[in-house]
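Chapter summary example: a protein plus cobalt (II) ion.
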Amino acid sequence: MKKWNPKSWQKKIALHQPVYKDTIELKKTIGKMSNFPPLVFAGEVRNLKNELAKCVNGDGFLLQAGDCAESFAEFHPNNIRDTFRVIMQMSVILTFAAGVPVTKVGRLAGQFAKPRSSPTEKKKGQELDSYLGDMINAIEFTKEGRTPDPKRMIDAYFQSASTQNLLRAFANGGYADLSYVQNWNLDFVKNSSQGSAYKKIANRITESLNFMNAFGINSTNSKQIYETDFYISHEALLLPYETSFARIDSTTGDWYDVSAHMLWIGDRTKQLDGAHVEFCKGISNPIGIKIGPKTNLDELPKLIEVINPQNVPGKIVLIVRMGQENIKKIFPPILKTVTKNGFNVVWSSDPMHGNTEKSNSGYKTRNFLNVISEVKHFFEIHRSEGTKAGGIHIEMTGQNVTECLGGMQKISDEDLGNRYHTHCDPRLNASQSIELAFLLASSLKDF
Ligand code: PEP
Ligand code: CO
């Protein structure tokens, strides 16, 4: 095997990379970022890997959630707080239903670069580079805005550092206290129109907390109730950025990408001999691999072996994103092949990316029913194969946006324009996210 180094990917084909005109500025920026403090510590990454190892065989459950693309425009403490809060609410519901610890991983503090279906976009006769995420260029349709600018990586880093700082404060400073989170869930149930099944679940969680309290276990004396571990992740798409954060951990001598605890390889950049796989195989972080409907069954086992030659549990998360129709036919043979090979992987369901559609009025949207349907099929297929569904991966926000159709609020095509704020794919809003957790809870456990 040729020797890996953080730049060995440069000898391979790197898809979905911007072309920077100012290469001197690019080099300067990468040099500068190489001296920036890490956003995460390698010891935390190892903790995450240990938690994920439990999700391989059903002793844990992964909840990975957050923006499709973070943006400079939506950078606000309230947005970070609300997204964190909803992820915590979902995690309490899922912990109760699954009866196992839920590992919380945000698509946050670094999720700024996007693969696009077309490299250019045409509007009123003008053709410009597509928007590739705030880390690369601007969403404004102007020549200047769409020109990739290396300095944007620095802005993305500082926004990520600041976001991560607030997330750490929330996780350890009392905002994740179970009794608060449970009160938010009770409020949700109280205000929901069709919440009787949800009410039953919420009441049982309250009963459990009261029961523990009767034994003297509560947030004043139990760290497990007062605080939580919250991890960050993003797609390892923009390789110059990731290269700057590949560092040797002084305690183990291993390479880590310290821009996030977990990174994933997108469905479009997972070629076995491609640059993204080359970069990811050398770092010790847990690696997600998106599994779309066109996944090559011969190549997948090789890909898993390249990324995880020692078959370490907790290293690989396979994130299945087929679409609610495709999953029924395409997923079972994939699941069988991976199982037959004895690979230790976490199976996670991304019910978002295979269910994107254009609404009649022209918005890129997703129907809540299709999202639910894909997750349900995912669980059913695992049940019938005797394997473990280990997690979910969703695009959501804590804001009350109108980007996905349906849910309790019955968001219709006419509503989409009211609060459609996403910079990329449509996200579940706060209500739809919590509802998804309750629905999943009902199918995980018979209430
Ligand atoms: C994403 O997760 O935002 C994404 C682009 O997904 P995929 O690679 O699965 O299309
Ligand atoms: Co997306």
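Key point: The chain has 14 helices and 14 strands.
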